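Example record

The entry below shows one chain as it appears in the dataset: sequence first, then structure tokens.
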Amino acid sequence: MPSRLPETPDSLDAVLTVSRETKERLSVYVELVRKWQRSQNLIAPGTVERIWTRHVADSAQALAALPEARRWADLGSGAGFPGLVTAICLAGAPGAHVHLVESNRGKASFLRTVIRETGAPASVHAERIEGFTATFAEPVDAVSARALAPLADLCRLAEPLSRRGAALVFHKGQDFASELAEATQSWVLDLVEHPSRIDPGGRIVVIRSLRPR
């Protein structure tokens, strides 16, 4: 991992190879985050100046972990990290679509604006995660979540989609070991962890299957 990445679209090069057009779409997205930040508090204020590395490049690790996945469900999308980054990186890929699940109306409105302005292959589901996963019937290849909940809770939320064959990709921080210990008390996990290429203390966790104990 580079010791210092640029706060520009080129920060993605440490994670994923994307086209110039993709970087341009991501730049539109970043400018929209900065514009809406004043009213919606989309990201932690202290990370605004590091948005390219802390949020965009970090989010791109979800797709880098499962590059073959084309149909995604992103739980608790918030400002769209990682779901919108995944969708923008997949723009133009046959069959690509990301379902963004966000119950907050203001954030859901923001997500729809970014989709419209960038042409990202995505749709917004303005509902609670439990309701979405219980009733959503379309097939998905992967489920993502970032800064949402402890691992045990993520397993519970995503289990209905995992049961139908979706892999799970979660961003986790330095407390991952304790979260895993807690989760394995309730779940049997087929799990692989990858060190983050952006955050020295972070992990990208890929779960291919899970079942309750």
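Notes for this example: The chain has one domain: 9-212. The two ends are 37 Å apart (CA to CA).
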